[in-house]
Amino acid sequence: MSDLTSSTTGERVLSVSASRISKWYGRNQVLDNVSIDIRRRERVVICGPSGSGKSTLVRCVNGLEPFQRGSLRVEGRDLGDARAVEAVRHDVGMVFQQFNLFPHLTVLENCTLAPIWSQKRDRAAAEAAAMEWLERVHVAAHARKHPGQLSGGQQQRVAIARALYIRPKLMLFDEPTSALDPEMVSEVLDVMVELADTGMTMVCVTHEMGFARAVAHRVVFMADGHIGESGTPAEFFDAPKTERAKTFLGQILAH
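Now predict its structure.
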């Protein structure tokens, strides 16, 4: 895919480069020698059974979880250096399973809290920028409401707008629709499809296989803390290589 390579050299330009990442919680190993490269402008869906290490991997990429072995570079910065973690967070946006919005603040206040208080941005400028992103995800009309007045799908779109505010080079989604009622899933996925069309680098942990087939450049299947296989959506869905992947697809596509 030509949009995933450098226009001048033809060489891959990496957003994420993980080499033999291992992580333990006590004696429980949750990541086992995981290696993966993600190119800029690439859209990667990570799927697999519960407890396979998917969410832990993306949290390591954002510096939210430390790892004990291996190396990890994100946007050219080595996360083995603690000083690089804060810088990486300015380049990486993340949307979680739960919306993590402050219930006592309005939608607009949720989106501008960090820019105003942490980044010392002018309030008017911060609010104007936030309104642009709220418009982008189709919830600008609710800017003065509190999260409790919104549906789950609307709250998750607010969370996406908040993450986009920093204009991230990389967006991470950790099961962004898992906490939603079924009828609200499509409105969040539609926004994610729109973002994908802009060429944004995206890594999405999800069980929404229709989204994976339609949007991903690559599907990565994880099980038992390691990557079982990786390929294009056509390769993964039409000809999975491992029995574990075949079983997973059989179970999830049956629902």
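The radius of gyration is 18 Å.
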